[in-house]
Write a structure and sequence with these properties.
This protein has helices spanning 2-14, 17-41, 45-53, 61-64, 70-73, 81-98, 104-128, 145-158, 174-187, 194-215, 221-242, 254-284, 291-302, and strands at residues 57-58, 140-141, 163-166, 170-173. With 303 residues, the chain is mainly alpha-helical. The relative contact order is 0.08.
Length: 303
């Protein structure tokens, strides 16, 4: 089991940013799903669902005020296996295409920008249109669709004629896929998944704005990445402070101090003897030294 876990960690480290986001999203889904299975077996599903709801994006503005983080966390949650499967498959295909034209930091910024603007579109729709008034209290948004569509749209604006091979349709231009997805979202704004389709439009707008402004020399992802860098650097500082290894400090016992004192005393006595011999040489010459004094001087010169 440990070997499998180590292999997964190694694979995660070797992946590019697209692969890392897929790994993280899949891990979150599996963890929540397993917790739900265990809770069901013990007839305790409610606590798990209540906990997860704190990270889903609510349509109710009064509830959002107490859960502002949900504007980011919702895009890492998914409602079903097929929901996460389609989103991660699209992210895998179009995320790698995106990296052909933009940097890793652009990917991170566009992903979050698309998710956040998609979430804002969802909230605005449910609070502006009377059609949704009766559902505001019970409606939540989850899924990475808006973030993924921002990636697709940004790549399509950058290289509209880039072709993607699809199983049933053959080679399709990237811009065609983006337009079809946006049109479908527009047609389904009053469907059962109305909130999701409003979010799709927000993600597409985010991707389009990013590509358009970047072409004019303005990087909309710089603000997002600056915020991410701030939290990342803050966490690294906390981690270094909390898990820093204690410095080694030497302590001296009384025996050691006694030995040092004796050594220093002997050394001082030897220095005084050598100084006396040198003074004698200065006054009377080397020949005036005794054999013992000559030996001490010789030993001192060899140390």
């Amino acid at each position: 089991m440990a070997h499998i876990f180590n292999e997964i960690i190694k694979k995660f480290r070797d992946e590019n940013i697209v692969g890392k986001y897929i790994y993280v999203t899949a891990a979150i889904y599996i963890t929540i799903a397993l917790a739900g299975v265990i809770a069901t077996l013990f007839n305790s599903v409610s606590p798990v669902n209540e906990f997860v709801s704190y990270f889903e994006l609510p349509a109710d503005l009064s509830l959002l005020l107490y859960r502002p983080w949900s504007l980011v966390t919702y895009m890492f949650l998914h409602a079903s296996v097929m929901h996460i499967l389609w989103n991660m498959l699209a992210l895998y295909v179009f995320g790698r295409i995106f990296l052909n034209f933009y940097s890793t930091r652009h990917f991170v910024g566009v992903y979050f920008l698309g998710g956040i603007i998609g979430g804002i579109f969802f909230i605005l729709a449910y609070n502006i249109f009377p059609y949704f008034q009766n559902d505001i209290d019970t409606t939540y948004l989850v899924g990475a669709s808006a973030a993924v569509l921002a990636i697709v749209t940004a790549a399509a604006v950058r290289s509209p004629n880039y072709t993607v091979t699809m199983l049933l349709f053959g080679n399709v231009r990237l811009v065609t896929l983006a337009i079809i997805t946006v049109l479908l979202s527009l047609l389904l704004l009053a469907s059962q998944n109305a909130g999701g389709n409003f979010a799709h439009l927000g993600g597409a707008v985010a991707g389009w704005l990013f590509a358009l402004m970047l072409g004019k020399g303005h990087d909309l992802t710089s603000i997002i990445n600056s915020i991410i860098d701030f939290f990342s650097n803050s966490w690294n500082k906390i981690a270094k402070t909390s898990f820093k290894r204690p410095k080694m400090r030497a302590t001296h016992t009384g025996v050691k101090n006694s030995m040092d004192h004796e050594y220093n005393a002997r050394r001082k006595e030897q220095e005084e003897q050598i100084n006396h011999i040198l003074e004698k040489i200065k006054k009377s010459g080397y020949s005036s030294l005794t054999d013992e004094e000559k030996k001490r001087l010789f030993d001192a010169s060899n140390r």
